[in-house]
Amino acid sequence: MDGECMNLAIIGMQFGDEGKGKIVDYLADNFDAVTRFSGGSNAGHTVIYNGEKIKFHILPSGVLRGKIAIMGNGMAINPKKLVEEINMIENHGIHPKVFISSKAHVVTEIHEDLDSELDKLIKIGTTRQGIGPAYYEKYRRTGIRIADLFNREILEKKLKLMMKLNDIHIERNDTSTIASELMEYGKKIKEMVSDTEIIINNMINSGKNILFEGSQGTFLDVDFGTYPYVTSSNTTVGGIVTGLGVPPKKIDKVMGIAKAYTTRVGEGPFPTEVEGEEGKKLREKGGEYGATTGRARRVGYLDLPMLRYATTINGIDEIALTKVDVLQGYPMIKIGIKYKCHGKEHIYPPPDLHKCEVEYIDIDGWNNINDENFKKYIKLIEKETVARVTLVSYGPKREDTVKL
Ligand code: IMP
């Protein structure tokens, strides 16, 4: 940033919905390419563009700034939704240059059905976008990849195998029709399909600046999150290496994005959750409704053990703190500082999180970001995470994000 050549990773530090899209939009002008390395249309980024609210799910949100968009092999892409999203932004007068990995996995309507059926049994509260089934097919080595959209024989064979292997009953067996539809969407994106790992490394080696856009958050990571209440990919920094083919030493800086409080969509442990009237008030003030599903988000206090953990495992150098305006006007602000489980204190979230109690501290509230109490709040976050808070956002517009 600021003229230095660098490749920057943007990683959610909580349960997703931290405002990553807004921060990416703020920073994107400094980069030559914006990329995604994990997930698919389960993500939801809301960006205000020319005064209009644009919701993204699958493209990297930096495309709005006219940047090259690279969609890595680690993604699970629904071709229909991708084509619709490209059409949507073209209608806004944006014609992005998009590169899609031939190795990324394909999400079909069968995966969406399987996701809904499976979620009735395991109750994760997924976004029903077919993401989990696309990844389990990937790891079973039966998945459909983007390259398969151009070979009818392979595509139909894989669709048939998928029907056979998934014993969850779905009332659809016309693999031929599904294959035809998928191939139609394949035709529309064919020009964009490439060896993205080579393109991105050539860009890096020729001194271009790359922005890696994380989706969801650290605590939805399939390895480090609150398993099984997680998404099915690596949302943490390691996902960039495997999901784009970028060597770790090429990631120059990691910026963590954290909301001034905590929210979660779907099931799973949430130690600092606030329910009842107080929770309702915070949800309304923050407009906490899911960008993908419209579901009311669960809300709670800031959880510093979570931020410490996210900083540690992602190597976060800097933090962008979002939605600080939502906490404005509260006389006192409660912050989770550590956990107590089975009589023992923990400064990082322990695995049996749902059995822990949170120890809180109260700090004085603030009325604006120049208030001394706000500065104390920032200092506390910096002390506890050992990362610098360098950006603060206090509203949805681009001008509402400021450097500290
Ligand atoms: P899936 O990614 O649709 O399989 O959903 C798994 C879990 O991750 C559910 O709790 C979802 O609500 C949550 N999730 C997935 N994507 C997002 C996101 O972009 N923001 C917040 N939560 C998400």
Account of the protein in words:
- The longest helix is centred in the middle third of the chain and has 15 residues, at 175-189.
- The chain has 3 domains: 7-101 and 191-255, Adenylosuccinate Synthetase, subunit A, domain 1 (Adenylosuccinate Synthetase, Chain A, domain 1, 3-Layer(aba) Sandwich), CATH 3.40.440.10; 105-189, Adenylosuccinate Synthetase, subunit A, domain 2 (Orthogonal Bundle), CATH 1.10.300.10; 259-403, Alpha-Beta Complex (Adenylosuccinate Synthetase, Chain A, domain 3).
- The mean pLDDT is 94.
- The chain has helices at residues 20-27, 79-91, 109-122, 131-140, 152-165, 175-189, 196-205, 238-244, 276-286, 304-314, 372-385, and strands at residues 8-12, 33-36, 45-49, 52-56, 68-71, 76-77, 98-101, 105-106, 193-194, 210-213, 253-259, 262-264, 298-300, 302-303, 318-322, 332-341, 344-346, 357-364, 388-393, 401-403.
- It has a 10-stranded mixed β-sheet, sandwiched between helices. Strands 14, 16, 17 and 18 form a 4-stranded mixed β-sheet that branches. Strands 3-4 form a two-stranded antiparallel sheet.
- A hairpin with a 2-residue loop joins strand 3 and strand 4.
- With 404 residues, the protein is an alpha/beta fold.
- The structure holds inosinic acid.
Main attributes?
four-stranded mixed beta sheet; Adenylosuccinate Synthetase, subunit A, domain 2; 404 residues; single chain; 20 strands; alpha/beta; 31% helix; 22% strand; Adenylosuccinate Synthetase, Chain A, domain 3; Adenylosuccinate Synthetase, Chain A, domain 1; ten-stranded mixed beta sheet; binds inosinic acid; 11 helices
